[in-house]
């Protein structure tokens, strides 16, 4: 049955030689929900997004978007037919183009010239970028470039958006603005799968989370539930294998100092 905007991983496994980066991961995101994928460095989050967005074929398991099994669909078909769009950990804007041109390139993939212009103008307006439309995109501050990326996502009129660490490099004020933008996306019916280390953002926007460690699902629930789960705390705080530097980025303030070694 077709169910627009839903996103599901069913028993997804990804092996790279002897390494199992993602191990039998299943989760399901309802239409118009923001679902967090969290976990320590190397847990398999980006690999999972690569599989969901058609960049990587899983060794086992399937991906179902809007009720369609899209496991073998190439990325361009996912964009055109499932209306699934993603961003990457690093900002990927065309450096020789203006903000407006960057958005037009994305809009023209899915719309004719007139409709593309309308969509670009709407996205610029929604993200408060209209005044910056003629500016060279990569001359903007990092936070604004991230916002241009989100505008570029919106011009595709997506049903499902996959975001890989959109708050990386943003200051607290910019993260609050990002939370507002994600709320607006959700309110317009867009489904979001959010890979993120910044737990303030996860707490602000996600209804549910799936927590990965060493490729496996170790916890699921609301942001409050998973950050209180002893198994999750052990994965972040007790692990000898994870970098100490990531602990500050991920542990919410109310847990800081409780059991940090
Ligand atoms: N193409 C690849 N070939 C071999 N190993 C890979 C490949 N891609 C990822 N890995 C390994 O798979 C594991 C999961 O990596 P992945 O990037 O998905 O983790 P992550 O949770 O996104 O980490 P981070 O939070 O640091 O971005 C890591 O051990 C990584 O080294």
From TrEMBL:
GO biological process, alphabetically ordered: D-alanine transmembrane transport; L-alanine transport; L-isoleucine import across plasma membrane; L-valine import across plasma membrane
Q: Name one GO cellular component term.
A: plasma membrane
Q: Name one Pfam family in it.
A: ABC_tran
Q: Which GO terms describe its molecular function?
A: ATP binding; ATP hydrolysis activity; L-isoleucine transmembrane transporter activity; L-phenylalanine transmembrane transporter activity; L-valine transmembrane transporter activity
All residue ranges annotated as the ABC transporter domain in the record: 7-239
Listed A to Z, the keywords are: ATP-binding, Nucleotide-binding, Transport
Q: What is this protein called?
A: ABC transporter ATP-binding protein
